[in-house]
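Sequence only, no structure available. Ideas?
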Amino acid sequence: FSYAAANDLKEPLRKVQFYNSVIMESIGEKLPDREKTYLNNSVNSVIRMKDLIDDLLLYSETSAITDKFVLVNVHEVLDEIKVFYKDSLAEGSIHMDMAGPVNIWGIPFQIRQLFENLLGNAIKYQQKGRPLQINISCKKEYPQFGEEQDRNPVMAYYKISIQDNGIGFEPE
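Reply:
I predicted one. Tokens follow.
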């Protein structure tokens, strides 16, 4: 359903994008500032909607994948993403505090997308005038069962934390 709906939504959106671009090219410079702002907002909204539809398509594809869990090396994924965002991090850094290999069970594409979204948001919402600092830490956790104090290595998991010095958000 997600796949069909997303594809159906793309066609009217392409038309809106086309009409906006025709207006912008033909009389965009002649428009009063207020109308030009509205047209620019419309163009930006179309871009945002296109991104949302693409995300919906991506979700429909990834949610259809089953039984493709493999060990994913988190270090390798984060190193690739650091290279991808190298230009955006020109005045900032990503510090990784992860001792040894961190291999988790997952679908590689989804794990990469998760970290890419988290780091992308940190970069997107960084505080102006301050170099971005992103800290990624990883700790192996062992759940406790009732009164048992033994660490059960079979049930162990990695707790991965990502912290940045961006603008933050209101808790409510």
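Residues 9 and 59 are 15 Å apart (CA to CA).
Hope that gets you unstuck.
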